[in-house]
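TODO from last week: model DUF1489 family protein.
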Amino acid sequence: MPLSMTKIAYRSGSIENLRQWVEAGPEALMTTRYLPKRHEEMIGGSLYWIIEHAIVARSEICGFEQRPDGRWTIRLAPRLVLVHPRAKRAHQGWRYLEEADAPADLEDGETSGDVMPGRLVRELSKLGLA
């Protein structure tokens, strides 16, 4: 089972903006300063996107390439898959996410509506309601 990671979609602001960026070309390319130590386990896994303190979508990780400036490019499939929103605290960079801890994909035709504020999702999760 491939390993995944989480990352804040800090320049997106919305799922639709993120979708436009991810699905704009043959691959979405994201840069990071450091290569994840477990990068080989991550190919075929997903990058789970965080917007407003909730994991809301994922993109498949296709590979990693070093850039001439020493940074790393994470190659992502040009498809954004919506997931059942799950509260996630803000963090810098990326964090590993085991498959057992990843939110499930939304089924075709299923919608999540507007994403609840992260604080509300967290509180509902604590109560076992989300």
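Done. The first helix runs from residue 15 to 22.
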